[in-house]
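[Q] Does anyone have a clean structure-token version of this?
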Amino acid sequence: MAWRAVFTALEAVCEENITALSGPTDLLCGNASGRLLTCMRKIQDHGRALEPVVAGFTAVYHHYDFDADTPGNGYRTLVKGQPQCLRDGSLLQCPVSAAGPPLPCSASAPRQRSWATVLPAGWRAEQEVCEGVHLHAQGLLLWPLPGLSGMAAFSFLTSAKYVIDPELRGAEFERITQNLDMKFWKSFWNLTESELLSGLASVASNLVQLNLTLTIPPEALRLPLASDPRLFAPVSPPVAHWGPGPVNMRLISYELREGQDSDELLAFSRTEATPISVSLVPFGAQKHPPSPWLLIHFHGGGFVAQTSKSHENYLKSWSKDLNVPILSVDYSLAPEAPFPRALEECFYAYCWALKNCHLLGSTAERVCLAGDSAGGNLCITVSMRAIACGVRVPDGIMAAYPATLLTIDASPSRLLTLIDPLLPLGVLSKCLNAYAGVDSQAVQPTEGTSTLSALGRDTALLISDLTHGASNWIQSFLPAEVLGSLSSSHQKSLDNEAHYRSTSPSSSSSNSSSGPRDYPEGFEPLRSERLAVIQTPSCPIVKNPFVSPLLSPDDLLRGLPPVHLVASALDALLDDSVMFAKKLRDMGQPVTLRVVEDLPHGFLSLLGLAKETQVASDICVARIREVFQQQTPPPCTNKQPKLERTNHGPSN
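[A] Here you go.
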């Protein structure tokens, strides 16, 4: 349904209900009808205020697409999501001024106004364009996705409470996502590595003949220079933060190939943390010759969670579809290992794979880097590191929803973090700060994660709130005079909380800097009462080109291999991908961008749960196959970039 038709239908429904509820009612239904009448008028006011905002978006959003054939950016997503939110009973209000086109630039509550109002390169900034974005989260967990309705909700342990009391549902959703510590989110995202879920995933995934975990000792390497193979460049092992240390990897191959069962490779197999995992090979099975292709994979997880085990499902599928061995790197995670440890380990693993490709069942005639989210960032930065060191650059990159900008800057698509239960704004901020080394609190790794322990303290508290939800549900049937005596203590607690917020320094400073508002007369947007504390890092690390590739000077990006970006329309990092693709295109670098619809951030980990995720995974496979099957060497692969600055465009 078109967005104009949705607003027209909303207005008609509100008018019809207001007319019906304004008529004479009996005493028994008077209180309930009065509350419904007030609610309908609020919905009508929000719809009328929101319609011109959406109209403003549609007038300008095509200017921010990558090209005419790739419609996709944060403005389009907001326009597409608004009617869906209206149909679900959740209202998003973004006031605009007449100074220019609408440009959302801050978060959902006054305390979040520290979120930068200056947008990254590529976005126009207008003064006082908008005051903020305000979310009424009481009726929303996630926009319904085809085939994924309810998949991103919290565990079944809390479903009864949500059904009983939608008001409590919204409040608890905000509480559990806004200000939890990093330990909780590490455990939550690592649920897929628990014995139960990983076992189920193994049953449903493709069978492979080789799934071997490796530990590579920290030994110096020597690789030939790309410009002159007669000369060699030294490659040091990772040393950041705690000195030289081993690098863990996982080798997955659909077919057993020469070298993969050699004693030299098996000597690197892990014998302590993770047992050797070699799939059953049919007796007498013939070994296949080495593949001319090699896929090196860096997993996602916000730089703080997950391993190659979390991504086994789609990696096995890719190995079968491409008939290629895959080496996935288990790099060290933040906050224990902030930048540049992960980059050093991934670059070392890449160089080790080039030097020892014969052990991996490949001749490495074509090498492709692939990764999602944080792994996409590492694919790009590892290639930049290869250019800087003068060694061979990979033949191509496939990055799914990559993190190319690690600053806490606003963009239209990043507003999705206000309603995304898997990647809330507070969590995104914590991940970026952890990788940058801003968060000094270390998180002890979770060993032997079980389903119940991974739920964490705050999720367990939701179970006890079931009685609270049932009480609220029962009270909704009681007369007002009865409720008066029951709610005095509850009202007292709310008053205390309001007093605390009003006297807190952050709240007072935020209120004083709220700025002018351009609301219709008598209209006030619904506001969240669960505020997220967002730390805006001041350290320069987040602007390091090897942390935020989008901020890299052209000299560091010139010479990258073909970059294939696969983004999601419902991803908070969508605008980052669009801007990075535009940056490479304007430099003359080979780049493609594909925006898939109706899928959230991290859709590769949802492979097998819906047909949409399979389609998106097939797009990633097609991009990787393009890298392997390209007929001519990618431009600038074996050339050193010019280091001097120039005002001229790239040479043809």
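[Q] Thanks! Anything notable?
[A] The chain has a mean pLDDT of 74.
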